[in-house]
Structure prediction request, 240 residues.
Amino acid sequence: MSRQIVLDTETTGLEVEQGHRIIEIGCVELRDRRVIGNPFHHYLNPDRAVDAGAVDVHGIGNEQLADKPRFADIADELVAYLRDAELIIHNAGFDVGFLDAEFQRARRPERIATLCKVTDTLPLARRLHPGGRASLDALCKRYAVDNSNRELHGALLDARLLADVYLGMTGGQSKLLLERDSDSTKNNVLNRVVNQLGESCKRPLQVVRADVGELLRHRQRLAGIADKAGRCLWSDDLKL
Prediction:
């Protein structure tokens, strides 16, 4: 499996065409659908003023950035970190546009498209939840990701939250666990899941099956649905 890097940036303003710059890059790495301890994080001196509106969003002012490195100073490290990875980004066009502009400004040949594959979680969220809100905060709420510490935006914090949201949107860790163990016995898979959930779940699994009377009542209910709709697909597969 290729490396997956969840990336976020904070900037001096919204419009890269107006010369706005990146002031923070935050990344976390996923291996086997788990966040591992290999983050990439830098604050950057943008050599320009940070818009007041941007400070309201992320809380990062010029005084905090005066002694930080420039993008060109960390470009080699960033390229080595990102090369050949799959980038997971929310609203990828924004971050990729800023990163490519920084590479160009530093007179470097790299562009994100030549370094990485990019997966944008914004259109993914819109496909999964048509009509629903697709902001990171809204997705954290939908997938029960704790974002209570997110009073302000922050690249590393948001990358970590997006990693959890992405795992939720794409099936979570337990789905991958079952897929990886598809050739094992059901008992072995169950044991792995129980181990992952913790000691509190290590108890016998009780299976309660419907008796004949319950199945008959269920068949009667499905027959009523079939009478109204003309057919009930569930009843086709029901066996007593």
In short: The beta strands are 4-11, 22-31, 34-43, 86-89, 117-120. The longest helix spans residues 212-229. The CA atoms of residues 58 and 153 lie 5 Å apart.
